[in-house]
Every structure is written in structure tokens, then in C-alpha cells.
Design a protein that fits this description.
alpha+beta; Aminopeptidase; 7 strands; about 25% helix; globular; binds coenzyme A
Length: about 190
């Protein structure tokens, strides 16, 4: 896949830096508080967000930022510096899973459908290859069509659906598991 075939106009992503932390957590906390896209039940802040940040200082588990004002997506927004972010996290603490990482991707709602999700996913998959991961996994709430479609566009394959594994806002939630084998052997 090339950037142009994916409709990516300008992949000017960067690694997150500590000054991004409030905006990164604000983007996530909006999703935690208002949607079932995150299975967290309460916002992260203070020590929890610092702990989360520290866990992503390992180069195998980066946080990539799509800056607001970058590319053609967000002209005229000087109130926001982070339009979206994506990260890799360990799938498991057991060592044999060391080359498997889990994808997270979050774009501010006011920046949706401007190609930032594609740019972040492209950057994340590229970085995952560069740091030596072999498999990416993703868990997506089963009604999250936008996220499912985005994963499909990058070749993620659905492994299956875990039924009723989540409960939030008094709803039982199903989760679709997806995988991307980075050496192409799907
Ligand atoms: C999923 C998400 C990251 C997509 O980000 P985005 O910047 O809006 O995505 P893009 O503009 O790059 O869209 C890429 C493609 O994904 C698909 N897509 C994105 N949002 C979609 C939606 N709401 N419905 C259907 N398809 C969608 C489309 O195929 C789209 O291409 P198109 O715009 O040319 O039709 C974004 O909607 C988001 O942050 N959602 C809330 C958080 C979330 O669900 N994160 C994933 C948790 S698993």
C-alpha cells in the first residue's frame, strides 16, 4: 500500500512529547466519558496518565501524534495542537508475546473524516515494522463501524467476535478482534 493509494495527503506525524500529555488524555477522556469506543469507565488523569505516559517511553510502544494545523486537515485551528494520536501497547507481559502489540487510535471528533485516521494507522504500522513487531492486534467494539473500516483498509483481518465481554452505560458490548501480520502471512 502506498500513501496515495490510501488517500493520505500529508503524513506529517510526529512522536508525542510530554507537553502533549494534557491534550492526549483530553482526547481519550472525551471518548471514555461519552462513548463505548473505550472500555475504560472513568477518565485518566494525574498519576494514572503519568504512568500511561511512562509505559510508552519504550521505543517499541510509541505514541504518534497528528498535529492540528498539519497537512490540509485542519487549517485555522490555533486552539488545538493535537488533532489525533495513535499508540502501540504491549499485548501481554509474558515475554513470548514480545513481538505482538496492540493498536489504539483516537482522533478528535471535530477532525473526523479528514484522513487523519489513515495517516495515524499508516504511521503506526510503519513504526511497528521498524521496531520489529510481527503482529498487530486490535479490539474494536462491534458497532464501531468507522474503526472497523479503517482497520480493514490497512489489511487487518477479523479473527472473531467476543460476545458480551464488555458492559458500559448499561449496555452489554461485543468486541471484534482483528489482526495484522506484518510479514504479510495472513
Ligand atoms: C476511527 C477513527 C480513528 C477514524 O479516524 P478518521 O480520522 O475519522 O478517519 P479517516 O478520515 O482517515 O477515514 C478513513 C476511512 O475510515 C472509514 N471511516 C472513518 N470513519 C468512518 C465512519 N464513521 N463510518 C464509516 N467509515 C468510516 C472510511 O472508509 C474512511 O475513508 P473515507 O473518509 O474516504 O470514506 C475515528 O473515527 C475515531 O477516533 N473514532 C473514535 C475513537 C475510536 O473509535 N477509536 C478506535 C477505538 S478501537
Amino acid at each position: 500500500m502506498t500513501e496515495s493509494s490510501l488517500g493520505i495527503q500529508n503524513a506529517n506525524l510526529r512522536d508525542a512529547n510530554p507537553s502533549d500529555l494534557p491534550e492526549l488524555t483530553a482526547i481519550l477522556n472525551q471518548q471514555i466519558e461519552e462513548t463505548v469506543n473505550s472500555f475504560r469507565l472513568g477518565p485518566i488523569s494525574g498519576p494514572a496518565s503519568l504512568q500511561w505516559w511512562a509505559a510508552h517511553q519504550d521505543p517499541r510502544f510509541p505514541i504518534l501524534v497528528a498535529p492540528a494545523g498539519g497537512g490540509n486537515a485542519s487549517a485555522g485551528r490555533d486552539d488545538v495542537s493535537v488533532a489525533g494520536w495513535a499508540s502501540l501497547s504491549p499485548w501481554s507481559s509474558y515475554e513470548a508475546y514480545g513481538k505482538t502489540a496492540e493498536v489504539s487510535i483516537w482522533v478528535r471528533p471535530d477532525f473526523h473524516r479528514q484522513g487523519l485516521g489513515r495517516r495515524l494507522m499508516e504511521g503506526l504500522v510503519g513504526r511497528a515494522r521498524n521496531v520489529g513487531h510481527r503482529v498487530l492486534l486490535s479490539r474494536v467494539e462491534a458497532n464501531n463501524r468507522g474503526s472497523l473500516r479503517l482497520h480493514e483498509l490497512f489489511g487487518f483481518r477479523t479473527i472473531g467476535t467476543m460476545h458480551q465481554v464488555g458492559e458500559k452505560f448499561s449496555q452489554r458490548l461485543d468486541v471484534v478482534m482483528l489482526e495484522l501480520l506484518l510479514d504479510g502471512e495472513q
